[in-house]
């Protein structure tokens, strides 16, 4: 099963998938940016533009198809953004890209904007745009609305998780029929 985990930058997708995959060897997680880096594509904030983000999407589609093939029989969690921040502003990813990824289920990670701002300011491993609390709140709401507009009526199972609710995500996975094996 291929599960898309959406959320804006800094929300805690990687933290959550690391904790989940450390305990369950039937799951594998990959970031869209890691797939793009394998294709030598720019993914760092300061090197992005709307043109580069658009060009990267075909590589993501091809790269994820290869990743799925390489990990056949495993449950994959793909960390995704439907809006990407660049130095020139935000770029919305075309919904067709997500169709080509052939996701079986999706989840959106949403946290309190104050906590999100704090997490982003403490994360020195990534360069991100300076953003006010109000703009961050708006960005997260836009991303959530885009997610709901895409998946609410599409027939693909979807869930919205508040904060890094690992047990909630695992319950959702179990409801989809994903079996877990512990290392």
Question: Can you tell me about this structure?
Answer:
This protein is of the alpha/beta class. The chain has one domain: P-loop containing nucleotide triphosphate hydrolases (Rossmann fold), CATH 3.40.50. It is 46% helix and 19% strand. The strands form 2 sheets. It has a 5-stranded parallel sheet with strand order 2-3-1-6-7, sandwiched between helices. A two-stranded antiparallel sheet has the order 4-5. A hairpin with a 2-residue loop joins strand 4 and strand 5 (89-92). The protein is globular. The mean pLDDT is 87.
Unreliable spans are none
CATH topology description: Rossmann fold
Secondary-structure class: alpha/beta
Kindly provide the name of the CATH class.
Answer: Alpha Beta
Shape annotation: globular
Pfam family, one: AAA_17
Organism: Nitrosomonas communis
InterPro entries: P-loop_NTPase
Protein name: Adenylate kinase
Please write out the topology.
Layout: E1 2-6, H1 13-23, E2 27-31, H2 32-38, H3 50-70, E3 75-80, E4 83-86, E5 89-92, H4 95-100, E6 105-110, H5 113-122, H6 133-151, E7 158-162, H7 166-175
Parallel strand pairs: 1-3, 1-6, 2-3, 6-7
Antiparallel strand pairs: 4-5
Helix pairs in contact: 2-3, 5-6
Structural descriptors:
7 helices; Rossmann fold; alpha/beta; 183 residues
At a glance:
The chain has 7 helices and 7 strands. The protein is an alpha/beta fold and 183 residues long.
